[in-house]
Design goal:
The protein has about 300 residues and is of the alpha+beta class. The protein is about 60% helix and about 20% strand. Helix 3 crosses helix 5.
């Protein structure tokens, strides 16, 4: 037969264990527990070892204080220029006030998603399609500011929101691709034209410089040639003057240097005519002129 004292001892031990389990609450790091006493908020249990009054206090909820992530499924939004497109986003938030997050909103995540959808429609509804696609950073900042203000009463701090995909309708996408292709083609044509223009300018400048250099070279060459001819004529004239002076000194006062030079030129001309002739050469016969010339040469060569 079982001893009644042992049964009582076991019963008391079980009751003590149950009371101890209901009294001691261990809260992990970055978490808090909302403690209620008789159905009313009593206190917030921080991380570590906490004790509560059994059968009077109870844990209403456990709140995670770490940054949390919520994904917004693709939703249809309309831009200011009446273009309907699919937009999805990711929200990064943390709970700044666990008490408000517990008592001010029934379902925090669902309410946050609905608030995000409303902010998406309001912000994107004020933008054109081009601005929506080109200014994601600005849109993200506006969405974060709007959500942060709206969820402040829930004790939630929205850290950032990022638009993942913005999908316009298929016909709009095809039109944008054609526009982008045309724009790239235009840029390529403009770049090619600018390159050809620069090349033509450089070629023209090179030809201009070459023409200037050639003209300066021709000018200097003509000047040098003219100076050379002038010096040559001067030397020839000086040589002829010296020759005449020598002839004059050799003939003395009785001779005529002019007759000597005329006769010399005449004989040189006759020699050139006879050398260049192919068959026959007809010379004018002027006996008096020829005899006079020969007589003059004889007198010039006759010793005095």
């Amino acid at each position: 037969m079982i001893d009644i004292t042992s049964l009582i001892f076991v019963g008391v031990a079980v009751v003590l264990i149950i009371v101890l389990m209901r009294t001691i609450k261990i809260v992990p790091q970055k978490q808090v527990k909302i403690i209620e006493r008789l159905g009313k908020y009593h206190r917030t249990a921080e991380a570590g070892l906490n004790t509560i009054v059994p059968f009077l206090d109870s844990v209403r909820d456990t709140i995670d204080l770490r940054e949390q992530i919520t994904k917004i499924e693709p939703q249809s939004v309309i831009t200011r220029d009446n273009v309907t497109m699919e937009v999805d986003a990711v929200i990064y938030f943390l709970i700044a006030d666990p008490v408000r997050a517990t008592y001010e909103v029934q379902n925090l995540r669902w309410g946050l998603e609905q608030m995000t959808l409303s902010a998406l429609r309001n912000v994107i509804g004020q933008l054109d399609l081009d601005h929506t696609l080109a200014s994601r950073d600005t849109t993200n900042s506006q969405l974060r500011a709007a959500l942060d203000t709206a969820t402040q009463q829930w004790g939630v701090k929205v850290m950032r929101i990022e638009l993942k995909n913005i999908t316009p309708p298929e016909e709009i996408r095809l039109t944008m691709e054609k526009q982008m292709t045309a724009e790239r083609t235009r840029r390529a044509v403009v770049t090619t034209a600018e390159g050809e223009k620069s090349s033509a300018i450089l070629r023209a400048e090179g030809q201009k410089q070459a023409a200037i250099v050639n003209a300066e070279g021709s000018k200097e060459a003509a000047i040098l040639a003219a100076e050379g001819q002038a010096q040559a004529r001067l030397r020839v004239a000086q040589a002829e003057a010296q020759a005449i002076q020598l002839v004059t000194q050799a003939l003395g006062a009785a001779g005529s240097p002019a007759q000597y030079l005329i006769a010399q030129k005449y004989l040189e001309a006759l020699g050139q005519i006879s050398n260049n002739a192919q068959k026959l050469v007809f010379l004018p016969y002027e006996a008096s002129g020829i005899m006079a010339s020969l007589g003059g040469i004889r007198e010039l060569l006759q010793p005095k």
